[in-house]
């Protein structure tokens, strides 16, 4: 494993202890089946109606997996390189008696067979860990069956620029939209390195991997807010904070 990726894995293992410490809270949240946002379901609806076999890359706490099954998925396999996160998610699935299975692995080297998925789902803090966006897209293409779909719901690439000031939105002096990467100073922190990919980078990588873009939507609402209730002016409707991408394998 690349040294920078290995360092990020250590940071993510540490951060994923949160999924263990807050196990009961996550269990209750998963049982409510509210993890998928309405705009996610709007784009995912046609795919979920076909009872797809889903692979969730970088599955984290796994709450989305329980919801995907409830909304129509036939099977869900979660992949995460944190053994702590994957184990907590697997315990939760067993407690809820749902058939989600987890694999501990690094993306893009996922130990699943070619063309095993009707739908690849990912996002909510996933692409920032990808050092090579072209390799990520190629792996998605490998996993998808012909006519299978990729769905991404992720932080907007411009988000690293927004300050968390409460009075008005500001652009941070230490960040650039076109930078290669930056050091995380929020969750999970611990010196984790986040790679920055523009919307152009992401869309182009998907196209080069043989995927046809069906939808690209941008939202003012962030996919994540800190648990302390902090409100930033950048989240109040003027700026892009998240996006959805739906693509189909040709």
Topology:
Blueprint: H1 3-21, H2 23-31, H3 38-48, E1 53-57, H4 63-70, E2 75-80, H5 83-96, E3 100-104, E4 117-123, H6 133-143, E5 144-155, E6 181-183, E7 193-195, H7 199-208, E8 211-219, E9 242-249
Parallel strand pairs: 1-2, 1-4, 2-3, 4-5
Antiparallel strand pairs: 5-9, 6-7, 8-9
Helix pairs in contact: 1-5, 2-4, 2-5, 6-7
Unreliable stretches, pLDDT < 50, 5 or more residues?
A: none
What gross morphology would you assign? globular
Strand order of the largest sheet: 3-2-1-4-5-9-8
Q: Classify the helix fraction into a percent range.
A: 25-40%
Order of helices and strands: HHHEHEHEEHEEEHEE
Could you say what the CATH topology is called?
A: Rossmann fold
Q: What is the C-level CATH assignment?
A: Alpha Beta
Distance between the termini: 31 Å
CATH homologous superfamily identity = Vaccinia Virus protein VP39
Using the CA coordinates, give the radius of gyration.
17 Å
Total number of beta strands: 9
Global structural class: alpha/beta
CATH architecture: 3-Layer(aba) Sandwich
Q: How would you describe this structure in keywords?
A:
alpha/beta; Rossmann fold; two-stranded antiparallel ribbon; 9 strands; 250 residues; globular; seven-stranded mixed sheet; single chain
In brief, what are we looking at here?
Helix content is 33%, strand content 23%.
What does this structure look like?
Strand 2, helix 5 (83-96) and strand 3 (100-104) form a beta-alpha-beta unit. By secondary structure, the protein is α/β, with parallel strands linked by helices. Helix 2 (23-31) packs across helix 5 (83-96). The model has no long low-confidence stretch (mean pLDDT 94). It has helices at residues 3-21, 23-31, 38-48, 63-70, 83-96, 133-143, 199-208, and strands spanning 53-57, 75-80, 100-104, 117-123, 144-155, 181-183, 193-195, 211-219, 242-249. The strands form 2 sheets. Strands 3-2-1-4-5-9-8 form a 7-stranded mixed beta sheet, with helices on both faces. A two-stranded antiparallel ribbon has the order 6-7. The protein has 7 helices and 9 strands, in the order H-H-H-E-H-E-H-E-E-H-E-E-E-H-E-E. The protein has a single domain (3-249), classed as 3-Layer(aba) Sandwich (Rossmann fold), CATH 3.40.50.
């Amino acid at each position: 494993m690349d040294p920078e990726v290995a360092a990020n894995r250590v940071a993510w293992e540490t951060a994923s202890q949160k999924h263990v410490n807050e196990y009961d809270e996550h269990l209750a949240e998963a049982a409510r089946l509210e993890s998928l946002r309405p705009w996610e379901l709007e784009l995912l609806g046609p795919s979920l109606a076909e009872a797809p076999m889903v692979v969730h890359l970088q599955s984290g706490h796994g709450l989305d997996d329980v919801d995907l099954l409830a909304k129509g998925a036939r099977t869900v396999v979660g992949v995460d390189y944190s053994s702590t996160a994957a184990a907590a998610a697997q315990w939760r699935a067993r407690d809820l008696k749902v058939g989600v299975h987890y694999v501990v692995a690094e993306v893009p080297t996922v130990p699943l067979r070619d063309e095993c998925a009707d739908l690849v789902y990912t996002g909510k803090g996933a692409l920032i860990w990808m050092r090579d966006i072209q390799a990520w897209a190629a792996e998605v293409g490998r996993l998808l069956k012909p006519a299978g779909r990729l769905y991404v719901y992720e932080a907007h690439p411009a988000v690293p620029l927004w300050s968390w000031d409460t009075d008005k939105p500001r652009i941070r002096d230490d960040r650039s939209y076109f930078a290669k990467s930056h050091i995380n100073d929020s969750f999970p922190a611990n010196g984790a390195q986040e790679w920055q990919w523009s919307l152009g980078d992401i869309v182009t990588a998907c196209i080069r991997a043989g995927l046809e873009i069906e939808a690209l939507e941008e939202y003012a609402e962030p996919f994540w807010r800190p648990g302390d209730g902090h409100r930033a002016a950048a989240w109040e409707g003027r700026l892009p904070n998240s996006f959805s991408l739906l693509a189909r394998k040709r």
